[in-house]
Amino acid sequence: MKKSFIKTSSFKEHLVKRSDSPDLHRFDIVALPGEAADFRSKAKFSMSQYCNTLLQKLFDLEKFLVKAFVKYHCTQVNEPLIWLNSLEELIILNLDFELSEKQHVNAQEALKIIVELQEQFSRSQHRPYSRQNLNAFKTIEEKVAYLLKLKDSQKTLEIDLSNELSFNDKIERELVFLKSILAIALKNKNDFNKNTGNVPAKQYQFKLNINTNRFVNVFYEMMYEKEIDGKPFLEAKASELAEFITYNFIDKNGKTIPVNTVKTILKPSRIEKRPKGFSDFFLN
Questions:
Q1: Which pLDDT belongs to residue 128?
Q2: Are 220 and 274 contacting, i.e. CB atoms less than 8 angstroms apart?
Q3: Burial, 100: exposed, middle or buried (Cβ in 10 Å; 0-12, 13-18, 19+)?
Q4: Which residues share a beta bridge with 69?
Q5: R_g (Cα) of the chain, nearest Å
Q6: What distance in Å separates the CA atoms of residue 107 and residue 66, rounded to the nearest whole number?
Q7: How many angstroms separate the CA atoms of 189 and 7, rounded?
Q8: Which end of the chain has fewer CB atoms surrounding its CB within 10 Å, N or C?
């Protein structure tokens, strides 16, 4: 990939090293031959040089190393979620350029991994612990579930980035956590039914006869593009909306709609995942 073809994204943090650094890691960003070793141009940090070198490094890797590369850089910055968002933007901006087959494969692999890590970091940052947040929950079970979720999110993130546990151990950890949450949820449900005499509502799943991205795009437009009195048609968290769609709808082939697919379509930066051309949504 030629440097002149690179479109630049803005990185708040950008770790670079000199080639003679004693603690040089195989994934570190080092200036390419003939370029400024300190990534500076006219006394300022060269974002274009950093972006070009970062993409060159990413695209030259073997596919199986892409995940480790992205994770490594997440451990080297103070705000990994912001760095991941910038990397995602950089890759998407440069997908239109003439990429080799290997570069295209690495780009798609990196985007997939970025989405996974963004979700992990988002979970770890969601509702940070405070006495005020804890007191927002009314029952002991809800408070316990909240604390368990915070604790497990942080542990899962640390383990996943450091690769301390095997895949099977990670799955076992997840099962233990889910069982504890399930036990709390079941107790709450039984207590509610016992006290009110209510029968749990039957789940209905409605079948789509259009492509999933066209259907989800309607919700995207209501959240981000359609307004009334200065407010969006629909106010919702993308993660919760994705779960709602997955729970209540099946695709045109009668299959469950993956929640991560819906989350990706709902991300403003993932333009390529939404339908092109005229909108299916005509409300004013």
A1: 47
A2: yes
A3: exposed
A4: none
A5: 23
A6: 9
A7: 52
A8: C
| Integer Cα distance of 263 and 237 in angstroms | 10
DSSP 39-51: -EETTEE-HHHHH
Indicate the pTM of the whole model. Answer: 0.45
Token readout for 14 is 């950008």
Task: Determine the pLDDT at residue 97.
Answer: 78
Please count the other Cβ atoms lying within 10 Å of the Cβ belonging to residue 163.
Answer: 12
Cβ partners under 8 Å of residue 125, min gap 6:
81
For residue 211, what are the contacts with CB-CB under 8 A and spacing of at least 6?
A: 252, 275
How is 122-185 classified by DSSP, letter by letter?
A: HHHHSS---HHHHHT--SHHHHHHHHHHHHHHHHHHHHHHHT-S-HHHHHHHHHHHHHHHHHHH
As given in the structure block, the two tokens for residue 264 are 């990706």
What are the Cα distances from residue 194, in Å, to 26, 124, 186, 187, 191?
60, 35, 12, 10, 5
pLDDT block averages, 10 residues each, the chain of length 284 = 64 87 88 85 88 91 92 88 89 83 89 87 56 58 61 53 54 60 62 51 74 89 84 86 88 88 89 74 56
SS3 52: helix
CA angle 81, 84, 90 (to 5 degrees): 145
| Nearest partner of 71 among 38, 120, 21, judged by Cα | 120
Q: Report angle CA 57, 93, 271 to the nearest 5 degrees.
A: 130
Helix (H) or strand (E) holding 231: strand 231-232
